[in-house]
Design goal:
With about 280 residues, the protein is of the alpha+beta class. Helix content is about 30%, strand content about 25%. A 9-stranded antiparallel β-sheet has the order 1-2-12-9-14-8-7-3-4. Strand 5 and strand 6 form a beta hairpin.
């Protein structure tokens, strides 16, 4: 925590990154946003997302479990998105700049002579089908019923995980294969959809139920990332959920829940994630 504070002083970290892990800070932001972001957005329904349950039941499960697995994209939308992104490039950005590659091949970093296991599709927020999904009022209403205000910001990303052999400590520079929670934008909901069938071989998303709240102080004061041997000394292994779903199926999660992805073994994984802040 002290090291994080020093990075905040130097300008490397934002105030939200430093304090977003703390429940009292999240509640202060929530109270502020309830005042400033209560205006209802236009009621636009994309008709592209299928919800298993009504919003009230979804929100109740989110509150209790920290996630909800009962959403999917219709087949036409999945096909349309795939037809577009396969013509686009993937990219990776770090301190040395942005590197691009063709969709089907992992990015090769010439200056380090390595291929990397994860990349992002370019120009995702410009894709018409994804813009329609992002505007869907039902998603925003779920956010409202969960946090008490409407989201200020929406951002879509598509992650591509490649089957590359790499040591965990090296892999962590590029993808989150250890349990962690997100705190840069406190009070966030992520709507995630697999764009391919996902099983144990191609980087399934995993989370630990009910870890979106009441984190132990020893975790809060240290890194947001926790090793398996430490996290399961506090939480129950049976509460781990590994989301292996069919193409188009998805889930909603509170970004403060402990989550990760497993490394891809022998197949690419594609996941669309629409983030509401």
């Amino acid at each position: 925590m002290i090291r994080n504070f020093n990075k905040f002083i130097s300008g490397e970290y934002t105030i939200s990154y430093l304090f977003g892990r703390l429940d009292f800070y999240k509640k202060i932001l929530q109270f502020k946003n309830k005042i400033n972001n209560s205006k209802k957005p236009p009621k636009y329904f994309s008709r592209k997302i299928v919800f298993k349950d009504k919003n009230e039941k979804i929100v109740k499960e989110l509150a209790n479990q920290g996630f909800y697995a009962g959403i999917r994209l219709n087949n036409f939308t999945v096909k349309k998105i795939l037809s577009i992104i396969k013509k686009l490039r993937v990219f990776h950005t770090d301190k040395d700049g942005t590197v691009y590659a063709k969709f089907k091949k992992p990015i090769y970093l010439k200056n380090r002579a390595i291929q990397i296991p994860r990349a992002y599709i370019e120009k995702v927020n410009q894709i018409s089908e994804i813009r329609k999904l992002s505007r869907d009022f039902k998603c925003k209403d779920i956010f409202y019923k969960y946090f008490g205000y409407y989201p200020k910001t929406t951002n879509a990303i598509i992650l591509v995980n490649y089957p590359i052999k790499m040591k965990v400590e090296n892999r962590l520079e590029f993808e989150t294969v250890k349990y962690h929670y997100d705190m840069e934008s406190p009070n966030s909901l992520y709507f995630s959809y697999y764009l391919c069938d996902v099983d144990q071989n191609n980087a399934p998303h995993a989370l630990i139920k009910k870890t979106h709240k009441n984190k132990p102080l020893k975790f809060v004061l240290k890194s947001a990332m926790v090793d398996n041997d430490k996290i399961f000394k506090y939480y129950k292994k049976k509460d781990e959920v590994i989301l292996m779903l069919k193409k188009g199926e998805g889930f909603i999660e509170d970004a403060s829940i402990y989550h990760k992805n497993f490394p891809a073994r022998n197949k690419i994984r594609l996941m669309l994630q629409i983030r509401y802040y």
